[in-house]
Specification:
Elements lengths: L4 H28 L23 E2 L12 E8 L7 E13 L2 E6 L3 E3 L3 E3 L5 E4 L34 E5 L19 E5 L12 H9 L2
């Protein structure tokens, strides 16, 4: 059936009007949907800083150390077993050296009565939540993560804590040092049911503990 021209003209008008209404409605929905988008990151004026777990190398004269005093984690090769490292916490503080003030950790030592020195192979990283905010000059707690891999205590069901000391190999006399990388004997402490059973390294300690 052939449609009249006036009818076709009116039909085209209605189709164009419908298309316009549909397009406008879609655009309105698109613009309104912006109110449901999450806020941009820069909308937060006080973002929580991320804690870096990156280890930074340190030279024997302190090159590469942090520039702000405080407690940091350090990883240092063992004196008795250089192929193994120990992670511990230490205070970084300003100290006088001649006429200068230098920023060094409390486990530094003086070489040839002149050079403030750190062990070769030292690394540092930021402390993590739960670490102390300040430490004394002779406080070097071993990082709890060093005990990971050992089974829990069979009595109190807690993760044991690593302790250590340095002794003379020939007569067993104890050196007076609190610095973990100097230790050559390690043991777990936990509850009153766990006795001191030293091992020559942390790896041997964890192995024997878990094999009991």
């Amino acid at each position: 059936m052939k449609l009249s021209s006036p009818f076709c003209a009116r039909l085209r008008v209605f189709l164009q009007l419908g298309e316009t209404i549909c397009t406008k409605g879609v655009l309105n929905i698109m613009f309104d949907s912006h109110s449901f988008l999450p806020m941009a990151d820069d909308a937060n004026p006080n973002p929580i800083p991320a804690i870096s777990d990156h280890w930074h190398p340190v030279g024997t004269r302190g090159e590469g150390l942090p520039t702000t005093p405080g407690v940091y984690r350090f990883r240092v090769p063992m004196e008795s077993r250089p192929e193994e490292t120990v992670e511990f916490l230490a205070q970084l503080r300003w100290r006088k050296h001649g006429v200068h003030q230098v920023l060094m950790p409390t486990f530094e030592y003086v070489l040839d009565d002149e050079f403030i020195t750190l062990p070769e192979g030292t690394y540092w990283r930021e402390r993590v939540p739960g670490d102390p905010e300040t430490l004394g000059a002779t406080q070097f707690p071993i990082a709890p993560e060093m005990a990971h891999g050992a089974t829990e205590c069979p009595f109190c069901h807690q993760q044991p804590v690593i302790n250590g000391e340095k002794i003379k190999e020939d007569d067993g006399d104890r050196y007076y040092t609190h610095i973990p990388y100097k230790f050559n004997r390690f043991w777990f402490s936990c509850c009153e049911w766990i006795g001191k059973a030293p091992r020559p390294s942390i790896s041997a300690l964890k192995h024997d503990w878990s094999q009991r």
